[in-house]
Amino acid sequence: MSVLVYTESENGKFKKNAFEVASYAKAVAEQLGTSAVAISFNADANNDLGTYGISKVLNVTSNQLQTFNAEAYAKAIAEAANKEEANVVIVSSSANSKYLAPILAGKLKAGYAPNVVEAPSNTTPFTVKRTAFSNKGFAHTEITTDNKIVGVSNNAFGIVENNADVAVEDFSPSLDDTDFAVKSVEVDKVAGKVTIADAEIVVSGGRGLKGPENWGMIEELAEVLGAATACSKPVSDMGWRPHGEHVGQTGKPVAANLYIAVGISGAIQHLAGVSASKTKVVINNDAEAPFFKAADYGIVGDAFEVVPQLVEKLKEFKAQNA
Ligand SMILES: Cc1cc2nc3c(=O)[nH]c(=O)nc-3n(C[C@H](O)[C@H](O)[C@H](O)COP(=O)(O)OP(=O)(O)OC[C@H]3O[C@@H](n4cnc5c(N)ncnc54)[C@H](O)[C@@H]3O)c2cc1C
């Protein structure tokens, strides 16, 4: 028996969420008195995972699996779970993991609890705490099936070092053409920019910025912080920013360590998608803007004065601490 964790990678390198889910898997394995095994696809530097308590990595190397394919990845993970006799499988809350987890649940006849924010409070019955109602509340959920899938929320459990000797094993799942009935033929990715999903920091602009010509200062603030840029729904609806930047209930979810909202009122539909972020900073010239109630830090002021000063101070700070 073991706990299996799907560790995501890109261009051979593990994503940050791989280390978080590995840390979570180790915590669950300790609770169950067993070891944590990872499955990775076309990843190098597998020894990295030993730092977070993984004792074995099943590494799948396959040209067919260079691009994410939910059906094929789910089949491979199911095969790995059966091989390792793992009845708990841990995945992240990335779009890819949320896509494959229900398919995997079907294959393993497993119960699946997504958006989990803590290690299980109990293992019999297996009980996890999850965010619910668009992050407005928590649900304590029991998974009563023999096999269980836990989807860990980004930046919720954190990365925990827990050195283990790690063995790396090649793993060749038995896949055939039917597993690739639906496949991506081309992936067009924005190059050289931090994506919202992977970002530690997100700088987001709203209608208070008046027009697309004013986004230079948002991009500058994002650049100095190494952050991704995002926006409210009306901003992308009006074509000021690309739709891929729209965050909120109907846009991308944000669970960053730091979310900076500039000229955004904090409508409930916006907050629903961003409130899982650890620290929220709001810059708005209206002291009554609802976002201030959800903020950890707030600046009441004109964005056109505050943001350039913030950029200048951050640049100074970086120069002094370089
Ligand atoms: C079904 C549904 C789904 C939705 N989904 C989403 C969603 O996913 N994401 C989303 O964002 N919205 C969503 N909305 C829209 C949402 O209700 C709000 O209309 C929207 O979030 C408002 O965007 P905003 O804050 O940029 O604009 P506004 O509400 O117009 O707010 C602009 C803010 O900028 C401030 N401001 C103005 N000038 C300055 C200045 N110079 N300096 C500083 N601050 C300034 C103002 O005080 C104000 O608070 C949805 C709505 C519906 C009905």
> How would you describe the shape?
globular
Tally of structural domains: 2
Q: Could you tell me the mean pLDDT?
A: 95
- And the CATH topology of the largest domain? Rossmann fold
Q: SSE order, as H and E?
A: EEEHEEHEHEEEEEEEHEHEHEHEH
Point out poorly predicted stretches. none
Number of strands: 17
Which CATH architecture of the largest domain?
3-Layer(aba) Sandwich
Report the structural category: alpha/beta
Terminal Cα separation, in Å? 48 Å
Question: What is the CATH C level class of the largest domain, in words?
Answer: Alpha Beta
Give a short account of the largest sheet.
7 strands, parallel
Count of discrete alpha- or pi-helical segments spanning 4 or more residues:
8
Task: Assess the beta-strand content as a share of residues.
Answer: 25-35%
Rg over CA atoms:
21 Å
Summarize the structure.
This protein has 322 residues and is an alpha/beta fold. The chain has helices spanning 16-32, 70-83, 95-108, 216-225, 233-237, 268-274, 291-294, 303-320; strands at 2-6, 9-10, 13-14, 35-41, 54-60, 86-91, 111-116, 122-123, 126-132, 137-143, 148-152, 167-170, 201-205, 228-231, 258-262, 279-284, 297-300. Strand 13, helix 4 and strand 14 form a beta-alpha-beta unit.
3D architecture notes:
This protein has 322 residues and is of the alpha/beta class. The protein is 28% helix and 26% strand. It has two domains: 2-180, HUPs (Rossmann fold); 201-320, 3-Layer(aba) Sandwich (Rossmann fold). It contains eight helices and 17 strands. The strands form four sheets. It has a seven-stranded parallel beta sheet with strand order 7-11-6-1-4-5-12, with helices on both faces. The protein has a five-stranded parallel beta sheet with strand order 14-13-15-16-17. Strands 8-9-10 form a three-stranded antiparallel beta sheet, with no helix packed on it. It is globular, with a radius of gyration of 21 Å. 44% of the residues are buried. The mean pLDDT is 95. The site of flavin-adenine dinucleotide has 26 residues, from helix 5, helix 6, strand 16 and helix 8. Flavin-adenine dinucleotide (FAD) binds at residues 206-208, 232-235, 248-251, 263-265, 267, 269-270, 273, 283-286, 289, 302-304.
